Amino acid sequence: MIETDPLPGIVLPAPGYLDAVRAATTDAGALLIVDETHTLSAGPGGCTRAWGVDPDVVTLGKAIGGGVPAGAYGLRADLAERIEGDPRADLEDVGGVGGTLAGNPLSVAAMRATLEHVLTDDAFAEMCALGERFVAGVAHAIAQAGLPWCVTGLGARAEVRFCPEPPASGGASAAAADDELDELLHLYLANRRILITPFHNMALMCPETTGADVDRHTAAFAELTAELSA
Length: 230
What we know:
This protein is mainly α. It is 44% helix and 10% strand.
């Protein structure tokens, strides 16, 4: 499975899992929908492109609008034709000003600016490289301290989990949660002027992230793990 929602965190698919899902949905005549809302961090095109997934539908969230409420979806050509040919399909916002389930000028402008000038291939290459640097530094600190923790990366995203091996399911990931350790790590870093996401211990590299930022986090994280193992 691919999962990066705040509750279970990052759970990467086992080898062959996605191919099996594609085969199963094809055999059943069902649609395979890949939601890249949280996995676009894998690189340009998200996990769909990075791993060669062959979905029928792809959905995207506000990341493509730089945080402005926005979303988009893509369809296989034959599926798009079927939907467009259905007179019952509500494909247009007849109000003309946008709405909860329709585009609007601000969202469209934000998406265009983000995709043309921010989430470029070059920016993704740098963010993913920094993600690897983050994972390597944190993994080294964990190993040096001998703690039963692990770190998982997904392109520009990385997450520390309080278990010796990366969780293989949402249930296993939830079982590895530790609220007190979560609070400790967030507070320890905050006291050193480092803020990470409010849920779990997840970091997402952005176009403004630098190697110095990553190294500063690694140094503070290593201090904490050393203190905990002393």
